[in-house]
Amino acid sequence: MATTGLNRLRLARAGVGVAGAGRTGVRRSPNRGAFTLLVLIAPSVLLLVLINAYPLVYGAIQSIHRGTLITTGPLVGLENYTDVLADPRFWKATVFTLVFTLVGVFGSWVIGLTLALLLRTKVPGGPVFKVLLMTPWVVPIVVSSTAWNWLVAAPDSPLPTLTRWLGFGDALFLADPTLAAITVCVFKVWVSFPFMMLMTSAALASVDEGVYEAASIDGAGSRQKFTHITLPLISRSTYISWILMTIFCVNDFPTIYLLTGGGPVDSTTSLIVLAYRTVFQDFQTGPGVAIAFIMTIALVAVSTVLYRQIRKVEIA
Amino acid sequence: MSAATVPLSKVALRGRWWRFAVLLIVTTVVLVPVLSTLLLSIRPGTLTADAAPITLANFKHVFASSDVAVWLVNSLGVTLATVVVSVIVAAPAGYVLSRGRSKAVSAYSLLLFLIQSLPAITAIIPLFILFAKVGLADNLIGLVVVYVGSTLSVATWMMAAYFDTIPQTLEEAAWVDGCSVFGSFVRVVLRNSLPGVLSTAIFAFLLAWNDYLVALVFLKSSNVFTLPVGVQGFFQQNQTDWSSVMAVAVVMLLPPVVIFAFLNKYFSVGGIGGSLAGR
């Protein structure tokens, strides 16, 4: 790529960085209404402490006791954690959570990006498609999981009937462990791609068309334009959507639980489903909360790494 | 991909129709589960003797034979309360995040980000124990409190992101006229923030309307069930009676779809991301 294109690109990047920061240097007279600001934020702080901070502390205490839902029980130190880490079910759930999250994030991203690029061009009925394609994100999971159950669960459901007719034989979409895991992942991608599509569309809308024209003049092919211009220019938004989707996937309970309940033979049990079952079905509060805390630590670590990545992109 | 990145160049008409075909196929496949739900709910079922191709008998049947009306009222109440309280709590906090210029404000913003990434299950177990002690478990008010807490981070960011777009000079003019900070927040900033408030309200609506996990843990008696728990229970008890199951599903599906149909321009997930990284 020649220099003109690169310069345009740099300028555009800088422009995106500024626009993304989204705020001009607002100044206000010192102390004016500092008390009012304190009052304004008080309800939010109060709720944060009650609904988010308090349970975190209480949960931490629970995770080092061997109690039930009603009693705290005796102090056992880190025994719950060591027990959980020694449990093969925990590692099986960890592997499934990783697979589910990777497929969920990148599957929905690839589809969302492709659709956003398609919708960006002049296509007959484009806006209508965009609204219709948002449907999976808007429909409650309870409803869509019921619909998916109707489609795939029983041997005489539409999709197994279709696979038989196509000559693939009986496909037990929710009864075969491997197939059930794949089905849950596909369901998650179906639910999540509209989010990625919307995020990417918003990012693409802020890209200056002039950059592409300059690149065309410099003789850049469409593939080059995509990898050297489009992807770098939307990278900030991409990282943000990856972070959010990672959080959504790891914390996702209903998508999995409503479709398979974590089965068959635990093949679709993610960490959050395992934590739920440990507490509310096996009544082992300590180990269950310990699982939730291990998830939390991993999630905060991953988010922090990706969050730093955003900052880097902003400077670049 | 080639054409996708060059919208302004003269793309062959053939390419346009090719992309139209791809979108049509993808959209059709994507809509299959939702369309089957709608179709099954208006087709005569096994329990309803009706010869017409389209019927509302399934709906009459489920409203008469189940608690779906109660769940619907519960869901509507819980959701509306969550929306109102969320906006009332998040709007002032968002204002502080948008206008405040101290380290404490930045720290609070980071705290909201960390809270957002915590698995809901971490908070739900201790909250259930606490709420059980004070009589808020198996209670719709308790549910609202948890939902408002869950919307807190994102709702605050969304409001802050919107307030960022409102020039401070407007407020300064009001201050010169003797308006207090609170007065200018309500009369100048909030008054001009309807789109931001709507986006936040829609976010809170969807969260409260769709939540399954919190309702599953907190609600035990059928008379306080919200739709997600009620529908799921109904589905488990009537697995083969798909007409009734889908009728109940449609009852739950309609409110978010109607809201989306009319207010889809306020569905701004992008706003969340922008405010997340901007701070």
UniProtKB/TrEMBL annotation, chain A:
Belongs to the binding-protein-dependent transport system permease family. It is found in: Cell membrane. The chain crosses the membrane at residues 33-54, 95-119, 131-151, 171-191, 239-259, 288-307. GO terms for biological process: transmembrane transport. Its main location: membrane. This is Multiple sugar transport system permease protein. Keywords: Cell membrane, Membrane, Sugar transport, Transmembrane, Transmembrane helix, Transport. Signal peptide: none annotated. PANTHER family: BLR7065 PROTEIN, SPERMIDINE_PUTRESCINE TRANSPORT SYSTEM PERMEASE PROTEIN. Gene3D superfamilies: MetI-like (1.10.3720.10). Residues 94-306 form the ABC transmembrane type-1 domain. One of its GO terms (cellular component) is plasma membrane. InterPro entries: MetI-like (IPR000515), MetI-like_sf (IPR035906).
UniProtKB/TrEMBL annotation, chain B:
It comes from the Bacteria. SUPFAM superfamilies: MetI-like (SSF161098). GO terms for biological process: transmembrane transport. It is found in: Cell membrane. It holds the Pfam family BPD_transp_1. PROSITE patterns: ABC_TM1 (PS50928). InterPro entries: BP-dep_ABC_trans_perm (IPR050901), MetI-like (IPR000515), MetI-like_sf (IPR035906). CDD domains: TM_PBP2. The keyword Kinase does not apply. The chain crosses the membrane at residues 20-42, 68-98, 110-134, 140-163, 197-219, 242-263. Keywords: Cell membrane, Membrane, Sugar transport, Transmembrane, Transmembrane helix, Transport. Signal peptide: none annotated. Its main location: membrane. The keyword Transport applies. Residues 72-263 form the ABC transmembrane type-1 domain. GO terms for cellular component: plasma membrane. It is a multi-pass membrane protein. Belongs to the binding-protein-dependent transport system permease family. This is Multiple sugar transport system permease protein. It comes from Kribbella caucasensis.
